[in-house]
Structure formats: structure tokens, C-alpha cells
Amino acid sequence: QVQLAESGGGLVQAGGSLTLSCAASGDIFSPNIMGWYRQAPGKQRELVAVASSGGSANYADSVKGRFTISRDNAKILVYLQMNGLKPEDTAVYYCTYKSLHHGLGPDYWGRGTQVTVSS
User: Fold this and answer.
1) For the segment 8-49, what is each residue's pLDDT rounded down to a tens digit?
2) Residue 110 pLDDT more than 90?
3) The pLDDT of residue 76
4) Helix (H, G, I), strand (E, B) or coil at 87
5) Phi and psi for 62 in degrees, rounded to 5?
6) How would you class 63 by CB atoms within 10 Å of its CB: exposed for 0-12, middle for 13-18, buried for 19 or more?
7) Helix or strand or coil: residue 14?
8) How are the residues of the chain apportioned to helix, strand and coil, as percentages rounded to the nearest 5?
9) Which of 25, 12, 8, 26 lies closest to 93 in space, CA to CA?
10) 31 prior amide bond cis, ω within 30
11) Phi and psi of 89, rounded to 5°?
């Protein structure tokens, strides 16, 4: 089992910045993928950004150039630096972890942290 704990959400004005953090614990194996998804009211959960333990990263087109994902593999932390926030970024942001140690492992999810961007 893997436990994920997010922090850093909140209320910010449009154009502002926030940094989300997620700490993973439990049965952590490498290589793995950690990252962020989000879900706005009435919408499906969507990918924001993910990063592998090897250093590659993938971003949704809607956040490219504004958001940056980073990892501390030693401490099993993943961050999401969000700049230039827009009202449409308002959502619950979920941290995710997937092991690649023996093929694709199951997806683990945190409880989510609310990000609200006011116009």
C-alpha cells in the first residue's frame, strides 16, 4: 500500500501562484511515476502533470509554460509550482503514484487539495 498526503492548496487571485506538495509513504518502488491530476465540479478528472523517477515529465497543454512539476526522489516528494493561475484552474488537485517496478502497478491517489482561483 502507498499513502499520499497533499498540501499547499488555497485561494489565490488570478495571476497568482501556489505550490502544491505531496509526500508518499509505504511500499514505494522505483522506477515510478508521481504527479498531479485535477477535477473541477461537473468535470472528469484530468491529467495536470506527471514525472517519472528517471526525470521525464509530461504536462497537459493547458498548463504548459505556467506549471512546473518537480520531485525529490530521496524524500519521495513531488511538487507542483503553479504560476499565472487562471479561474479555470480551480479544481481539487490529486496527487498520484504508480510503480513501474514490475510492469504497471495500480494507481494510488491522495485525498486531494482544493485550489480556488478568483477572477
Assistant:
1) 999 999 999 999 999 999 999 999 999 999 999 999 999 999
2) yes
3) 93
4) helix
5) -70, -15
6) buried
7) coil
8) 5, 60, 35
9) 8
10) yes
11) -85, -5
